[in-house]
Amino acid sequence: MKAEFLQKAADNLSVARYCFEHGSYDASVTRAYYAAFQAAVAALAHAGIVTEKREHKWLQANFSRELIKRRKVYPGGVLSYLSDMLNVRNIADYSEKFISAKLASRQLAKADELYKLISAEVES
Q1: How far apart are CA 99 and CA 78, in angstroms?
Q2: How far is residue 111's CA from residue 72's CA, in Å, rounded to a whole number?
Q3: Cα distance between residue 29 and residue 20, in whole Å
Q4: Of 14, 40, 42, 110, which shows the fewest CB atoms inside 10 Å?
Q5: pTM of the full predicted structure?
Q6: Closest CA to 11 of 87, 111, 121
């Protein structure tokens, strides 16, 4: 399960980069969020925390509480990444507003950082 979700995360990160490079910033932030989400699923599975639901709020709460605050597996600097990225993804997907290149670049950087941290931990 860990390997599969890490692969899904890598695939979504690749698509997010492609979309960004081609000016599709809304699509880029959506794929960047899912890359981070799927990497977090892998991180939780690696820690033995698994659920079939995989709801956004559950994932955010458990990743933050268990892997950042309680077990200190990941740095506190990434604490708000998932919730912040979900908020931006919601704007991209459900609002009439368009995401700027600058904001999309930030989301891509967050997803990339989270993916690298998680894959280093899970694959060690």
Answers
A1: 22
A2: 19
A3: 8
A4: 14
A5: 0.96
A6: 111
- How long a stretch of residues is the chain? 124
Judged against a pLDDT cut of 90, whether residue 77 lies above it is answered with: yes
Q: Can you tell me the distance from the alpha carbon of 24 to that of 17, in angstroms, rounded to the nearest whole number?
A: 10
In the chain, the amino acid numbered 70 is R
CB atoms within 10 A of CB 52: 4
Q: Which CATH architecture has domain 2-122?
A: Up-down Bundle (1.20)
Tens digits of residue pLDDT in 15-68: 999 999 999 999 999 999 999 999 999 999 999 999 887 799 999 999 999 999
Distance CA 82, CA 64 (A): 9
Domain locations in the chain as residue ranges: 2-122
